[in-house]
Design a protein that fits this description.
- The chain is an all-alpha fold.
- The chain has one domain.
- It has 3 helices and no strands.
């Protein structure tokens, strides 16, 4: 399993990076043209909810007993993959829709 605190530190660093990415998307929403503003806001809200869910799972991981660590870690890894894909897809989509506004 490795060191629990090291794993949590790595997760925390990834979450901070994603928080910055989501904030960037929220800033784009504030500055977007009216027709795509709602799309930016909706996507940012969805990404933030996924990130917050992972943050809760990190808390669960920190507090989990040894028997539960494997299943909690697996849940975190699945959520990380989903969030990574969602962030990448979102920025790729909006870069195509608004080429002047690169994510």
């Amino acid at each position: 399993m490795g060191n629990r605190e090291e794993y949590i530190d790595k997760l925390t660093a990834r979450l901070k990076k994603w928080d910055a990415d989501i904030s960037k998307l929220e800033e784009k929403a504030k500055n977007a043209k009216t027709d795509i503003k709602a799309k930016y806001t909706e996507k940012a809200d969805g990404l933030r909810a996924k990130k917050e869910s992972i943050q809760q799972k990190v808390i669960d991981f920190r507090e989990a007993n040894e028997e539960a660590l494997g299943s909690v870690k697996e849940s975190i890894e699945n959520s990380l993959t989903n969030l990574t894909n969602a962030i990448n897809d979102t920025f790729a989509k909006f870069s195509k829709e608004d080429p002047e506004e690169k994510a």
